[in-house]
Specification:
Blueprint: H1 2-7, H2 14-24, H3 28-37, H4 40-47, H5 52-65, H6 71-80, H7 87-96, H8 100-104, H9 114-131, E1 146-151, H10 157-166, E2 171-174, E3 177-182, H11 185-188, E4 196-206, H12 209-216, E5 224-229, H13 235-245, E6 257-264, E7 267-274, H14 295-306, E8 314-318, H15 325-333, E9 336-343, H16 346-359, E10 364-367, E11 379-385, H17 395-412, E12 413-423, H18 426-433, E13 439-446, E14 455-461
Parallel strand pairs: 5-6, 8-9, 8-11, 9-10, 11-12
Antiparallel strand pairs: 1-3, 1-4, 2-3, 4-7, 6-7, 12-14, 13-14
Length: 462
């Protein structure tokens, strides 16, 4: 495919081929293939050509390839380029190649078009930020205590509260979540069930630029980016207007704080999120697979499951282990007798083993269809993020899979053992359990994850 696109650089379809190559170059592997396959002369010819769209995309590709051999050509283009919509891509390419001298000496072209002027200015600032990137020191303790809204995976707020209290925090429960007043922000990120910690700025602010800027002006004066959520009108216009009114330096490519604007109809809530807080909780996760569970959700799920375990040192099985996150989080919660992950995907097991090495985990992983897996001894806990059908497999495939799993669970569990299953296919699982009298449904609850509404089912072998 790459060779076909490169061949099209000699045709009238060069602009489209360049755009497709830019998309491919986002992958490190593909980027290296393009570098080796591309004749520099063909790209330089397009940079110097008369077709403006091709020039723009040629600048983009140079920036994506980060190949310094094109730098002399770009420096020449800075002096010659007069097409305003091409200039932002040219400046960003210079930023990718770390050409501080050219960018610092660049003078904005005269124009009466506010749109082009804003785009060129933004691109120049981003390019300069890429060159003159600031190094932010990790922050573990702030200069004073702040009220933090501690966000839990939806449905697992009690698990996060329990963990925060174990870490020594005094937790206040409010309608919108859990609050902790502390300057020890680094310790907050010891809580494995924590999704994020936000500093509330203001609630029910009118969703217009001036009101937001006035409310946010009390924020710490630091380099920041704006994160706008739930706004249904012109997002770019509102972000630009807020940015122009705030005094703190906005730098979307080089920031240590985020101004979060959460909109609901004509009102919004404002939060400040710190990005320079060290967070190494899930550094073991070197590789993930499609539909991998978020680590904080996995941590919350195993903490929830721990409430139903009866064994002092549990033997734990995940029959659809994916990249192993549930087992690693269970291992960190308390000592286990055995941790075993099973998955029929070789790629998933390979990822799990890489993560296990990084985690220094004692978990073992085998490539096996869960419905054909045999164990010498029963397990105290079976815990799994089941295939949903939304992201992995299909409802029809899950119909047989779930029926087979429920038939096999009693033979895999010890007497009194517990199965904790997380799935969107809750109706299917409820129907399947009717055919397993050895299993007793002891708990079920709805959660939320990425716009989906998975349920947690807890079964006990009677």
């Amino acid at each position: 495919m790459i060779q076909e696109l490169i061949a099209k650089l000699q045709t009238a379809d060069a602009a489209q081929a360049l755009s497709a190559l830019c998309a491919l170059a986002k992958s490190g592997k593909e980027r290296e293939i393009i570098r080796r396959a591309l004749e520099p002369e063909s790209l330089i010819r397009l940079i110097k050509g008369e077709e403006s769209k091709a020039r723009k995309n040629a600048y983009r590709l140079v920036g994506a390839l980060e190949d310094e051999q094109y730098l002399p050509c770009l420096r020449e283009a800075v002096r010659e380029e007069t097409t305003l919509f091409c200039i932002p891509s040219l400046l960003l390419a210079l930023g990718s190649l770390k050409d501080a001298e050219t960018l610092d000496g660049y003078i904005l072209p005269p124009t009466d078009c506010e749109k082009h002027q804003a785009e060129i200015t933004l691109a120049l600032n981003k390019a300069k930020s890429a060159v003159h990137r600031l190094s932010f020191e990790p922050v573990g303790v702030l200069d004073k205590a702040y009220n933090f809204l501690c966000v839990a995976p939806s449905g697992f707020e009690s698990c996060l509260k329990e963990e925060l209290e174990e870490l020594g925090f005094s937790v206040r429960e409010r309608r919108d979540g859990l609050y902790v007043n502390t300057e020890k922000v680094g310790r907050l990120y010891k809580a494995r069930c924590l999704v994020e910690a936000l500093i509330p700025i203001a609630y029910k602010v009118k969703a217009e630029a001036r009101a937001i800027a006035i409310a946010a002006d009390a924020c710490p004066k630091s380099r920041y980016r704006i994160e706008l959520r739930g706004y249904l009108k012109d997002r770019r216009k509102l972000i630009d207007e807020v940015r122009s009114l705030l005094k703190a330096p906005n730098d979307p490519s080089n920031y240590d704080c985020e101004l979060r604007i959460e909109c609901r109809l004509d009102e919004c809530d404002l939060y400040w999120k710190l990005w320079d807080v060290p967070d190494t909780r899930f550094s073991y996760r070197k590789q993930a697979i499609a539909a991998s569970m978020q680590p904080s959700t996995a941590a919350a799920l195993v903490r929830y499951a721990r409430r139903f375990e009866k064994a002092e040192r549990a033997a734990v099985l995940d029959p659809f282990c994916g990249s192993g996150t549930l087992l690693f989080e269970r291992e960190r919660l308390s000592p286990c007798k055995l941790l075993l992950g099973v998955d029929k995907s070789g790629a998933a097991v390979e990822a799990a083993r890489k993560n296990a090495a990084a985690a220094k985990s004692k978990a073992n992983f085998v490539i096996k269809d869960a419905l054909r897996f045999e164990a010498r001894e029963g397990f105290d806990l079976i815990i799994s993020n089941l295939p949903f059908g939304n992201r992995v497999g299909s409802h029809r495939e899950n119909l047989e899979l779930y029926r087979g799993l429920i038939r096999r669970l009693p033979g895999l569990l010890k007497d009194g053992g517990t199965a904790v299953l997380y799935t969107m296919e809750y109706r299917l699982l409820r129907d399947c359990i009717k055919s397993a009298p050895e299993l007793r449904l002891t708990e079920q609850k709805r959660t939320e994850a990425g716009g989906l509404l998975p349920w947690v089912f807890v079964f006990e072998k009677s």
